[in-house]
Write a structure and sequence with these properties.
By secondary structure, this protein is mostly beta strands. The strands form ten sheets. Strands 19, 22, 24, 25, 27, 28, 30, 31, 34, 37, 40, 41 and 43 form a 13-stranded mixed sheet that branches. The radius of gyration is 53 Å and the shape is elongated.
Length: about 700
């Protein structure tokens, strides 16, 4: 009995303990579920927090996660960092994760998902606390403009590891852009222009078209939202959310941006703009010439579809207004901006919008001044009819070792003293003439430092002291003769001589040269005179016909100098015949009409100079007979008398009947009547004399 009494309390206590434990566990589970549901309920507004509300973000990585569950309709969700499906209205839609953030205030993970087809897209936002069974998904579909919030029961797990975001190939989209709502949030500024359902937004140097998709406006939130589709001219499509701060009209953010073509996530950035609501706007009307099809407000373009004025809705405050300065009518004539109806001539200009405003842009005829120039100078442009345009003289343009020197204007110009101007009474064209000059640098080698060198360039002398080089600018394609010698006053020991010239690349060069580009010339001096070689040739081709000997040759290295020509006969002393000047290439020539017969020897001599050794050519011998000399005299006399003889016999007809020519061949005499020739030319007689001279030649 006692045992039984002791045993019963023990069993009763055990049962009580078990029931109490189960009750505590159930309360904990319900508390956990309640906390998750409460968290999601507190997040149940339609707003999407800005990126600054989340504690972490990496545009290249995504945390590893896995979510599975079902909603009350039995539609399931199964997705991870690799992607997965969400069943919507009985249809499985594949979503790709493109961003992960942790919402520290709500202790929720947020995964951003997207499904993009060629003509449509869906954006989804998945929220859940780690290791809880409550899941929330918000989905926006573009084509239907529907936004739905779905709750699931299942499990959501987030690990501490991450994976790189997948790279997706860029796809060409054909989404038809259009607004999906009547927008109530307006914003204008340098980065954003949105007054109505459509607008513009700047991204870098590009301007994207903006289409309103969804508004979230509530006094309970710090930020009001505009969900937008952005479209570039190149065919890129973006989803993004524009946030405007409820407490600060100058705070506008562009957040949660996704390039739909390749799932690339964009960084959040602040926009330079101020915002307002629909009731806080005014209307600006701009009247302009029919040719003006576009105006710019705050650097955003606005077109008109008909001949009426431009009408732009603006927020109150300062705005920049700009229009084209002119509209080209073709042929260098256009309608150009003159001033605004309120007298302001600025374009662009600042307009202060406090109420509805109307402005008229006044235009006048303008003509185009075209400037033709090889190099940058006065640009020309559009000028009002009758305007007098002063044309400035551009400075020389120097590019490394080339200089372009302005020589003058030509074309439709007018001159008044030193002023050049154009009267714009029609389209005009003027041309700038330039002369190209190249830098020529002269220096010397082989000289002690401090030696004064005199350089001669085309008869002009300039001085320089080693090692300083001399620089000159010479016109393109001009000829340049150059030389160098040492100052007489300079004491240089031992005596130095100019050996020759080399280029900056070490190549030998001799004057003259043609200036075809920048050139560096180095005068090479040496303590030894440079040797020379002189050649001499005697040409006898004109001796019988003209009685001339041609004496020619050249000096090496080429020098422009004087050469002495000498001759002698039968071992007699040398006699100076003449002095011949060499060309720049070192060549010389002398035509001699000899008066001495016998074996004549001829040579040429170079006397040398301060830097070159004297030289003498080889001796050349020529045999000249007395008959050659007699023939020379006879041919001269015959030549002078032929014309009178020709006239006396009254031309070739009478000459053939009247004269005969006696030929002496050996000891025989032959007489031939010239009547058989018809007529006799003077060279027939000369030929006969040559034959006679050859037959009777004596030395």
């Amino acid at each position: 009995m006692i045992r039984r009494l002791k045993k019963r309390p023990s069993r009763r206590m055990a049962r009580i303990f078990i029931f109490a434990s189960l009750f505590v566990i159930l309360l904990c589970i319900q508390g956990s579920i309640g906390h998750g549901q409460s968290t999601l309920r507190n997040n149940g507004t339609n707003g999407m927090p800005t990126q600054s509300a989340f504690s972490t973000f990496d545009s290249t990585q995504i945390v590893n996660f896995n979510v599975t569950g079902k909603n009350h309709r039995g539609e399931r969700i199964s997705i991870s960092q690799q992607g997965g499906i969400i069943e919507i209205a009985g249809k499985e839609v594949y979503f790709i994760p493109w961003k992960h953030l942790f919402w520290s205030e709500k202790e929720l993970h947020a995964f951003f998902l997207a499904n993009v087809t060629r003509t449509d897209f869906r954006v989804a936002f998945l929220f859940f606390a780690n290791h809880t069974t409550n899941l929330e998904v918000r989905i926006f579909e573009y084509s239907s403009a529907t936004y739905q919030r779905l709750l699931y029961q299942g499990i959501g797990i987030v690990t501490s590891t991450s994976s790189p975001l997948r790279n997706h190939p860029t796809q060409q989209l054909s989404i038809a852009p259009q607004p999906k709502i009547t927008n109530k949030l307006f914003a204008t500024g340098p980065d954003l222009f949105l007054v109505g359902d459509k607008g513009y937004i700047k991204q870098g140097t590009s301007i994207l078209d903006l289409y309103s998709l969804r508004n979230t406006i509530t006094a309970r939130l710090e930020w009001n939202e505009l969900w937008a589709l952005l479209v570039s001219k190149s065919g890129d499509y973006y989803f993004s959310i524009i946030y405007v701060n409820a407490a600060d009209r100058n705070r506008v953010l562009l957040g949660h941006g996704l390039r739909l073509n390749d799932y690339h996530s964009l960084e959040q950035r602040e926009l330079k703009a101020s915002w307002g609501t629909e009731g806080e706007v005014c209307y600006l009307s701009v009247n302009a010439a029919p040719e003006v099809r576009e105006i710019w407000v705050d650097d955003f373009p606005f077109k008109r579809d008909d001949e009426s004025s431009f009408k732009v809705t603006l927020t109150k405050g300062n705005h920049t207004l700009r229009l084209n300065n002119g509209t080209d009518e073709g042929g260098g004539v256009r309608v150009g901006f003159s001033r605004w109806s309120d007298g302001d001539t600025s374009n662009p200009r600042i307009v202060k919008i406090e109420s509805d405003m109307e402005l008229t842009a006044e235009y006048c005829k303008e003509y185009l001044l075209t400037v033709e120039s090889r190099y940058r100078c006065f640009a020309g442009g559009w000028y009002r009819e009758g305007q007098v345009v002063t044309v400035p003289q551009p400075p020389s343009v120097e590019q490394d070792e080339v200089r372009y020197y302005f020589e003058g204007w030509s074309g439709d110009i007018n001159l008044n003293n030193d002023t050049t101007f154009v009267i714009m009474d029609s389209p005009k064209t003027i041309h700038a003439s330039w002369r190209t000059l190249y830098r020529i640098t002269l220096s010397a080698s082989g000289l002690p430092e401090g030696t004064e060198v005199i350089y001669r360039l085309n008869e002009l002398e300039s001085r320089s002291t080693t090692p300083t080089a001399l620089e000159k600018w010479l016109t393109e394609n001009s000829m340049l003769n150059f030389d160098a010698y040492l100052s007489i006053d300079g004491a240089v020991e031992p005596q130095l001589f100019l050996q020759g010239w080399r280029t900056g690349r070490g190549e030998e060069v001799s004057p003259p040269i043609q200036v075809t580009g920048p050139q560096e010339l180095v005068a090479v001096f040496t303590s030894q005179k440079r040797s020379t070689e002189l050649s001499c040739r005697v040409l006898t081709e004109d001796l019988l016909t003209a009685g001339l000997l041609v004496i020619e040759g050249e000096i090496t290295p080429p020098l422009q100098t004087s050469v002495i020509i000498e001759y002698r006969t039968s071992g007699e002393p040398w006699t100076i015949l003449a002095s011949a000047e060499t060309t720049g290439a070192g060549k010389y020539r002398y035509d001699w009409q000899p008066t001495t017969s016998g074996i004549v020897q001829i040579r040429s001599r170079y006397l040398g100079d301060a830097s070159h050794i004297a030289s003498t050519s080889e001796t050349r011998s020529v045999a000249i007979s007395q008959s050659m000399l007699r023939f020379e005299r006879f041919a001269g006399a015959f030549s002078s008398s032929t014309s009178s003889l020709y006239q006396e016999v009254e031309g070739p007809k009478d000459l053939g009947r009247s004269i005969g020519v006696q030929f002496m061949v050996g000891m025989d005499t032959m007489y031939e009547k010239c009547s058989t020739l018809g007529y006799v030319k003077p060279f027939w007689s000369i030929g006969a004399i040559v034959i006679w001279s050859a037959s009777t030649a004596l030395f």
